[in-house]
Design brief:
It is built from 13 helices and no strands. By secondary structure, the chain is mainly alpha-helical.
């Protein structure tokens, strides 16, 4: 991803046809994610309705805090529905789990929670008091990494809101990099390396990539260390299991919003774009072609469409 960032800056121009092909393939990738998650996480009309309500609420209130509140509200609402048997909804059966051995002490877990909360609350305060671009970059990516739930696609609007409005990166560069990220294996958050490499002003390049990548992954490590000692008790709790059904439905709604904006609105501008997106989706979802191959073919198709 860092190499792609350097190559993009060297070649210049974010309106090239092959680059637009990368934007279009991003639409197909997110659409496939919505399709797959909806089939697994919203198998009944109650959870489908909850996902749609979450999507509408996110569109009306597009902030990071709103996403957290919507997820929490969906979990509480579905839990309440499962207890009351709302419209025939049966209470979720309690699953049984084999306890995991967790070699993490309570002291280490508490320390991880303290550090996580301290950074989540303290970084914005430091950013307000001290005008520092490296601090601003670290704070933005740390906050995005703290709010992920259900996969990297879900926080796509949050990442965009952190890097595009301040002028660190253009929206075209953002969507193109997101499309290129589909061609590499590993977590989607490696996209942060590309963003850190292309943002302006400094830090960028390798320094910016390392800073953004470390910041966006750090919350995950802290949360895992803090939550694992409690996980055996938490995941066996019937109320928690019921809440997870609602939370997962809300995640589908958030991902649906990400499909619309910024992905769809940035890539689909003409019938040819829509046609290419449908072909990309067909190859990914039904023909099961490797994502890297679909990305390459979409970039080539974008270049051909530009010449035509």
């Amino acid at each position: 991803m860092v190499a792609f960032a350097y190559g993009l800056q060297t070649m210049g121009g974010t309106d090239a046809g092959w680059l637009h092909g990368l934007k279009v393939v991003a639409v197909a990738v997110v659409a496939q994610a919505v399709w797959g998650m909806a089939q697994n996480l919203t198998p009944d009309r109650q959870r489908v309705s909850l996902a749609v309500l979450a999507a509408i609420a996110t569109l009306a209130w597009p902030t990071g805090l709103a996403q957290v509140l919507i997820i929490v509200a969906a979990g509480l609402l579905y839990h309440r529905m499962s207890l009351t048997g709302f419209q025939g909804l049966a209470a979720s059966p309690q699953q049984t789990f084999v306890p995991m051995h967790v070699p993490i002490s309570r002291r280490l877990a508490v320390s991880a929670w303290v550090l996580f909360v301290g950074l989540l609350v303290g970084l914005p305060l430091l950013r307000y008091l001290a005008s520092s671009q490296p601090l601003a970059v670290f704070d933005s990516f740390f906050r995005v990494g703290s709010l992920v739930f259900g996969g990297g696609h879900v926080v796509l609007p949050l990442i965009q809101a952190e890097v595009v409005p301040p002028g660190w990166i253009t929206n075209e560069q953002f969507i193109a990099g997101y499309g290129a990220a589909q061609a590499v294996p590993g977590p989607l958050f490696t996209f942060a390396a590309y963003l850190g490499a292309v943002i302006h002003p400094w830090p960028n390049g390798w320094v910016g990539a390392a800073l953004a990548l470390g910041a966006i992954f750090l919350p995950s490590f802290l949360l895992i260390i803090g939550a694992l000692p409690l996980w055996n008790r938490l995941r066996a709790h019937a109320n928690f299991q019921a809440m997870l059904h609602g939370i997962n439905a809300a995640v589908v709604g958030l991902l649906l919003v990400a499909l619309y904006h910024p992905v769809w609105t940035s890539a689909i501008h003409a019938p040819g774009d829509f046609a290419l997106g449908m072909v990309d989706f067909l190859l990914l979802a039904f023909w099961k072609w490797p994502p890297w191959l679909v990305v390459v073919l979409s970039a080539l198709a974008g270049a051909v469409i530009e010449r035509l």
